[in-house]
Amino acid sequence: MNLSEKIQQLIEESSCLTDEELGQAIDSQLQIHTEEIQEDGLDTYHCHRYEPTPYRVLQVLFDAHPLKKEDVLLDYGSGLGRLAFYASLRFHCSCRGVEMAEKWYTISDNNRLSFVQEDADIRFILDTADHYEPEDDITTIYCFNPFSPDVFRQVLSQITRSFERRPRVLTLILYYPEDDTIFYIEHHTAFVLMDEIAASDAIKKDRRERFVIYQLRPA
């Protein structure tokens, strides 16, 4: 059993652990540190606080929508890099992360250096989402409610420009999306809804506890 399979088994057998305890256990296996929630009060309306997607939730997503080795995954508001490390280990795909906070960027880059997977193709970029221009090889984009609908509109414009420069199947995954963001995507962009996935049983209490997946496709 390789390390990726061991991590999946650990998640499946972790019912007695909290998300935080599971996060710490997996981080230890991967030789990284991603289990932290921003509590400094510096988050704003436009840029929401850092909070990692629970490993259990990532497993739900990627069991339903696995990536390929040829994919290039981009995480907006990448924080300490958990998504990149999980996806790289499981799928051996290239991963990019955009993070505006120098503190989180520095920790994520240190994580990259200590990450147990030595041949991982992971890169973090210190930049704001509304300034960063996505590379034209990106195939999958992930957002965990990192910024306001106003900023997200600018991000969508940049994503669309990348698609126009190089038409390809481009997948957009939103976790815990805002209603205003969903409305804008469905009424003002060419993205097509592909799937919705309940992230956990919490969907019964909060309908935003879900993944919404859109795609752009060449004509």
Features:
219 residues, alpha/beta, seven-stranded mixed beta sheet, 37% helix
Give a structural overview.
By secondary structure, this protein is of the alpha/beta class. It is 37% helix and 19% strand. It has helices spanning 3-12, 19-30, 55-64, 82-91, 102-114, 149-165, 179-188; strands at residues 72-76, 94-99, 122-126, 140-144, 170-175, 192-198, 210-216. It has a 7-stranded mixed sheet with strand order 3-2-1-4-5-7-6, covered by helices on one side. It starts with a helix and ends with a strand.
Our measurement of the CA-to-CA distance between the termini, rounded to an integer number of angstroms, reads 42 Å
- Estimate the mean pLDDT confidence: 89
Poorly predicted spans: 40-48
Helix count equals 7
